[in-house]
Amino acid sequence: MIEALEILTNASLWSAVLRIATPLIFGVLGALLCERVGVLNLAIEGIMTMGAMIGWLSVYLGADLWTGLAIAAISGGIIGLLHAFLTVQLSLSQHVSGLGITLFASSLAYFIYRLVVNVGSLPPTIEPFQPIEIPVLSELPFVGEVFFSQMGPTYLAIFCVLLMAYILRRTPLGLAIRMTGENPHAVDAQGLNPIVIRVFAIVVGSALMALGGSFLTTAAFNSFFPEMVQGRGWICIALVIFASWQPGKAFFGAILFSFFDAYQLRLQHVVEDVPYQLFLMAPYVLSILALILVSRRSKVPEALMEPYRRGER
Amino acid sequence: MRLERRAYVSTKLVIVAPILAILASLSLSGILIILAGVNPFIAYFEIVKGAFGSKLAITETLTRASPLILTGLAAAVAFRARLWNIGGEGQFYIGALVAAAVGNNLLLGLPVIISMTLIMLSAMIAGAVLLAGPALLRLRFGIDEVVTTLLLNFIIILFVGLMIEGPLKDPFAFGWPQSVPVDRSLRFADLVPSSRLHNGFLISIFAAFSIWIVVTRTVFGLKARATGFTPQAAAFSGISLSKTIMGVALISGALAGLAGAIEVMGVTGYVTTTLSPGFGYAGIVVAMLAALHPGGVIASAIFIASIFVGADAMSRATGVPSFIADVIMSLSLLTMLIAIFFTNYRIRR
Q: N or C: which end of chain A has fewer CB within 10 A?
């Protein structure tokens, strides 16, 4: 029991929390942006898988790490464009389109991976991101290890949270985005094109999701293998609801979630007579519990999953 | 260019749409096969040969199709009522696990037919209960069932892992994590001698026809359809939405659970965590390709099964990664979505 509590005072736990949270932060921001314009993006799981594969593959074939991330983001944006075409232009079922793209993007990622990489007994590896020790600050006890010696993309993720919160709340673009998700007819009446805004947000959101995926293969781990996203995309979709569509809350949701994940990982070594599967189940069970917890008070964007066609009521 | 809803959708269009969708998907996948350095026509010929080229190939394809018909029905029934059951994979596994547990030694002594029926029934109940949870959460709290059923898939597969390394571990499996087996006397007999095709296939076909009758010829089927089309109008005409959704959920979950039972009783005899190569998810594609029609599900399940069985053989012969099967399947879903759209809309200049 004491041991279980001692883990909590360990700086390496809290440092791991931020690391584990990074892909979730990117993913949840992406999903949030899409839903804020009224489109549920269930392609997330596939986009993260593709991002993980493309990011890794680019580096494996010679790109540097940040270029790899950029290429991954672009691949995500392209898949997002497909989702936007199906759901916004053709106003097809957002559920089915998203799931279809998830199946497609993951199988395409596996196919390309197998095609380019000759898999032997062990998957090939790359040199992943290393923690950046921020001078002076990283010397601080506890805080230094937790906040100021993370990997580059983690800082980028935190910056994205602030940027997204600022844009959504304080800029005309943010107002247009929020209004498109609440009432696209009103946006149209203001002389803005809700279709363009939706497509734009889905493409940017999908690029963020792909960044989240690429973190898995270029920072958290150094190789790619099928099924490695492990439902993180679905967890992000749940986190968006948990966060009531607010970037700030989404960030804390991702942190809270990753805390439990990092904690259960360490707890496994302390509590030995409990089957490890029970610990692994925790993230998924928590997501469902979180949904139940907030269901009564969450404020859904009014036009979520409402297709919009110009000139039609 | 603008889109205009068709005033009249001809039957010919409805039948041609899936065929065009599949052709489009095969053409797009052909590009990937070319990238792999293989002539796509040769690759597709190898797939057809691998899936239908011999008696053994055909029985393999139909064996693969048996659970797919059921998971496809599970998706079709649910989607008709706009209940997005994406948890077919989890329901499949829980059905399989329950079948193995019940069929191991609980029922010895009863007549074989009764025991087998009881095994299948318990698997169906397990699947139904598993989907009843998310359905209840949607009805009670308004929680999107897509997310909950997806998350449950991961939970259930971990649960299966837990059970087959714990209470349901087969002590005679030399340490391999697999469940206790269904007793030999309670497994399906071969439908075709010396092949893997078993009588479970007939059960799948029977289920498809039963569901066909339920959705098109019963009051419940009509209510479910109305609930899917316009919930407000359905509620206004006195249909209880929550009862209908719950009923649909129970049927859908039961079908996916039955798929798990059939796979265990017909093919493997026991459960592992790799029992399903994505039967639950593939069921969604099967249902969509069939335009959610129970009769069409049989045909589209055989199609999807043939792609997977054929692609394995093709991959061995040509070296194209067998993931091409997944690509063809998922692309068919997307092209089918677009095809359905153009059966309802036309382009006007």
A: C
Q: Render pLDDT for A235-249 as a digit per residue (tens, 0 to 9).
A: 999 999 889 899 999
In which region does residue A108 sit, left (phi positive, over 0), alpha (psi from -120 to 50) or beta (all else)?
alpha
- Determine phi and psi for A122, rounding to 5 degrees: -115, 140
Burial class (CB in 10 A: 0-12, 13-18, 19+), B333: buried
**Among residues A86, A69, A184, A49, which one has the least CA distance to residue A126?**
A69
Closest CA to A156 of A284, A282, A31, A18: A18
Q: Is residue A9 part of a domain?
A: yes
∠ CA(A258), CA(A264), CA(A265), 5° rounding?
Answer: 90
User: What tens digit of pLDDT does each residue of A30-48 get?
Assistant: 999 999 999 999 999 999 9
Instruction: Give strand pairing partners of B345.
Output: B5
3-class SS of residue A114: helix
Number of Cβ pairs < 8 A linking chain A and chain B: 121
Measured CA distances, B188 to A3, B116, B193 (Å): 52, 9, 12
Identify which of B58, B23, B35, B17 has the alpha carbon closest to the alpha carbon of residue B195.
B58
Place of tokens 């045909």: B299
Q: Which domain, by its residues, includes A198?
A: 2-117+135-294
Task: Give how far B159 is from chain A: nearest CA, Å.
Answer: 7
Is the Cβ pair A86, B32 closer than 8 Å? Answer: no
Count the residues in chain A: 313
pLDDT band at A131 (very low <50, low <70, confident <90, very high): confident
Q: Is-contact B71 B256, C-beta < 8 A?
A: yes
pLDDT tens-digit map of B169-213: 888 878 788 999 998 888 998 898 888 999 999 999 999 999 999
User: Which sign does the torsion angle of CA A174, A177, A179, A182 carry?
Assistant: negative
Question: Does residue A9 sit at the B interface (CB-CB below 8 Å)?
Answer: no
Q: Does A189 touch chain B (CB under 8 A)?
A: no
Within B53-197, residue ranges assigned H as helices are: 55-80, 88-105, 112-141, 145-165
Contact B87, B166 (CB under 8 A): no
**Nearest CA of chain A to the CA of B322: how many Å?**
8
Nearest to B226 by CA among B253, B249, B245, B211: B245
Spatial separation of the C-alpha atoms in residues A159 and A131, rounded to whole Å: 17
A313 pLDDT above the threshold of 60: no
A293 contacts chain B (CB < 8 A): no
ipTM of the complex: 0.92
Q: Is residue A307 part of a domain?
A: no
CA distances from B128 to A162, A281, B6, B281 (A): 44, 21, 38, 17
Contact residues, chain A, for B159 at CB < 8 Å: 277, 281
Q: Give the number of domains in chain A.
A: 1
Q: Identify the bridge partners of residue B4 per DSSP, sorted by sequence position.
A: B346
| Minimum-distance CB partner of B327 among A111, A277, A280 | A111
Decide if domain B38-319 falls under CATH 1.25.40: no
Q: How far apart are alpha carbons B321 and B323 in whole angstroms?
A: 5
> What torsion do the CA atoms of A142, A148, A221, A164 make, to the nearest 10 degrees?
120
CATH number, domain of A77, equals: 1.10.3470
Question: What SS3 state is found at B195?
Answer: coil
Can you give the C-alpha Rg of chain B in angstroms?
21
Q: Is residue A112 part of a domain?
A: yes
Given a contact cutoff of 8 angstroms between Cβ atoms, the answer to whether A247 and A225 are in contact is no
Is residue A123 one of the residues assigned to a domain? no
**A142 DSSP assignment:** T
Q: pTM for the whole thing? A: 0.93
Does A16 touch chain B if contact means CB atoms closer than 8 Å? no
Whether the Cβ atoms of residue B335 and residue B6 lie closer than 8 Å to each other: no
